[in-house]
Every structure is written in C-alpha cells, then in structure tokens.
C-alpha cells in the first residue's frame, strides 16, 4: 500500500512545474509575503498539477513552504474558513 501511494505521488510530481524551476528559488523556507514566495507562486500559476499539489498539502497538514500556489498563511486561512463553514 505504501509503495502504491508513493508511486501515485511520483506520478503527479513528474508534471510539477517546480521540477524545472530555478534552483535558487527556496520553496520550503520562503516567508509569506516575501519576494521568494511571490516567485514560487508565479511558477505555481503555470503548473498543470497545481490542484493536486494544493490538495496534498491541505490534506497532509503541510506547515511549510509554497504548495499549489499557497503559502502557509494562505493554507491556514483556508483551513479557518473551512471550520467556519462547517460550524
Ligand atoms: S503547484 Fe507549485 S509547488 Fe505544487 S507542484 Fe506545481 S509548481 Fe510545484
């Protein structure tokens, strides 16, 4: 089962726009609101697997970095909105 999940993850990540991005862009440590985060988000806007990436980050509770065009502040705001809708 773990292998199956790993293979599925690899399948979508093969199409990730960030795979070919400038290695100087810091995807994990980019601070929300920073120029580095803006650079990451610009690449995400063109990514064909953006939705899958965003869903992965949201469902795994990813705390750091830019995923699916969202930084940690964006993800936290979305989680808060989901709680408000559910309440
Ligand atoms: S959405 Fe952004 S972080 Fe996610 S795979 Fe695409 S380019 Fe990478």
Give a quick set of tags describing it.
DNA-binding, binds iron/sulfur cluster, mainly alpha, 87 residues
Describe the secondary structure blueprint for this structure:
Layout: H1 2-13, H2 35-45, H3 50-60, H4 72-86
Bound molecules: iron/sulfur cluster.
Residues 16-18, 43-44, 47, 49-50, 53, 66-69 line the site of iron/sulfur cluster.
Report the principal-axis shape: globular
Q: Which whole number gives the mean pLDDT?
A: 87
The portion of residues assigned to helices is 55-70%
Q: What ligands does this structure carry?
A: iron/sulfur cluster
Structural class: mainly alpha
| Helical run tally | 4
Number of strands: 0
Give me the Rg, rounded. Answer: 14 Å
**Total domains:** 1
Low-pLDDT regions: none
Q: Terminal Cα separation, in Å? A: 34 Å
The largest pleated sheet is described as: none
* Share in β-strands: under 5%
The SSE string, one letter per element, is HHHH
Short note summarizing the structure:
The protein has helices spanning 2-13, 35-45, 50-60, 72-86.
Can you offer a commentary on this structure?
It is a single chain. The chain is mainly α. The chain has one domain (11-86). Helix content is 56%, strand content 0%. It is built from four helices and no strands. It has helices spanning 2-13, 35-45, 50-60, 72-86. The longest helix is centred in the C-terminal third of the chain and has 15 residues, at 72-86. It is globular, with a radius of gyration of 14 Å. Iron/sulfur cluster is lined by residues 16-18, 43-44, 47, 49-50, 53, 66-69.
């Amino acid at each position: 089962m773990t292998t199956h999940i790993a293979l599925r993850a690899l399948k979508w990540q093969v199409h990730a726009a960030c795979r070919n991005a400038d290695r100087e862009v810091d995807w994990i440590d980019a601070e929300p609101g920073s120029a580095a985060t803006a650079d990451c988000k610009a690449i995400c806007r063109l990514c064909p697997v953006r939705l899958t990436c965003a869903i992965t980050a949201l469902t795994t509770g990813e705390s750091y970095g830019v995923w699916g065009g969202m930084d940690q502040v964006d993800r936290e705001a979305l989680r808060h909105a989901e709680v408000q809708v559910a309440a």
